[in-house]
Automatic annotation (TrEMBL):
Lineage of producing organism: Bacteria, Pseudomonadati, Pseudomonadota, Gammaproteobacteria, Lysobacterales
InterPro entries listed in its UniProt record: AB_hydrolase_fold, Hydrolase_4, UCP037442_abhydr
Pfam families linked to this entry: Hydrolase_4
Protein's recorded name: Serine aminopeptidase S33 domain-containing protein
SUPFAM superfamilies to which the protein is assigned, alphabetical: alpha/beta-Hydrolases
Record-annotated Serine aminopeptidase S33 domain positions: 34-240
Length: 280
């Protein structure tokens, strides 16, 4: 189901909804950087078949979005989290009323989900974090640490030259807004979210969260080392925090950053059981 969505600043896009028969809960989902909402269709259909209604948000600048990044068309975490996500959530809640809603995300989407929950903790019943964590350079080892540290330091230069991040040319993510990438790079360098432009003290707000959370990590996912997921959990307040790890044998496929989207059943068996347990 396609839900036309409009933010208060005039930005428009389509929120995708997969309703479940006799749904126990809804899951509001934030994609990874550069990944269109439609790429999660197989995963969302699988989860809906297990009784969870799934609404997938579309990033500003992606696919159905009315905007594209450019030197004169820029945005950061504030627009993504505080402007766009509440609008998508509102249309999803209107289309599937009466459900408790979990909030989740993949990769950078998982980080944004935690920030959104911190800004409006009463809106959600729990957090689902898949293949995500704080991209702190200190979470990586050896050559990977050096690579990501160097990359984070050249991102501001790249965005200054091009007026955006030309990920399509660099074979990493896609064409992204300059401010989004500078803010991401700042977290790589510092390990915190102090300078991402969100209202108030976002780090302190995250520390006040008391939501149950499930974090899923994949053993072949070099983009999210175990220490990265641990760091994201470490920013949350007290709560029922559960970690699950998937290797190739458990997933039935290569256990990397994206493959679970094509082989969703093992992941969704765990996710659906965890969601059901929150309401017993």
């Amino acid at each position: 189901m396609d839900l036309p969505t409009r933010a208060e600043d005039g930005h428009t896009w389509t929120t995708r909804l997969w309703p479940a028969a006799d749904a126990q809960a809804g899951l509001f989902w934030i994609p990874a950087l550069g990944v269109p909402a439609g790429k999660y269709e197989r995963w969302a259909q699988s989860l809906a078949a297990r009784g969870v209604t799934v609404a997938v948000h579309e990033w500003r600048g992606n696919d159905t979005s009315s905007l594209r990044p450019a030197r004169d068309s820029d945005w950061g975490y504030r627009e993504l989290v505080a402007t766009d996500m509440p609008a998508s959530l509102a249309v999803a809640q209107s289309a599937a009323p009466g459900l408790p809603w979990m909030l989740g995300g993949h990769s950078l989407g998982g980080q944004l989900a935690v920030m959104a929950a911190a800004l409006d903790p009463e809106a959600f019943a729990g957090l689902l974090l898949i293949a995500t964590g704080v991209p702190d350079q200190r979470s990586f080892r050896g050559g990977q640490r050096a690579l990501i540290a160097i990359f984070a330091r050249v991102v501001p230069l790249i965005t200054s030259v091009f007026g955006l991040f030309p990920g399509d040319r660099l074979n990493w993510a896609g064409r992204e807004a300059a401010t989004v990438m500078r803010q991401w790079a700042g977290t790589v360098r510092t390990g915190n979210y102090d300078n991402v432009g969100l209202p108030g003290d976002i780090e302190q707000a995250m520390k006040q969260l008391r939501l149950p959370a499930l974090g899923l990590r994949f053993t072949d996912d070099w983009l999210v080392p175990e220490a990265s997921l641990d760091a994201l959990f470490g920013k949350l307040g007290e709560g029922r925090h559960v970690r699950e790890s998937f290797d190739a044998a458990r997933l039935g496929d290569r256990a990397d950053h994206f493959r679970w989207m094509k082989t969703p059943e093992p992941v969704n068996a765990t996710v659906a059981a965890w969601i059901r347990a929150q309401f017993l």
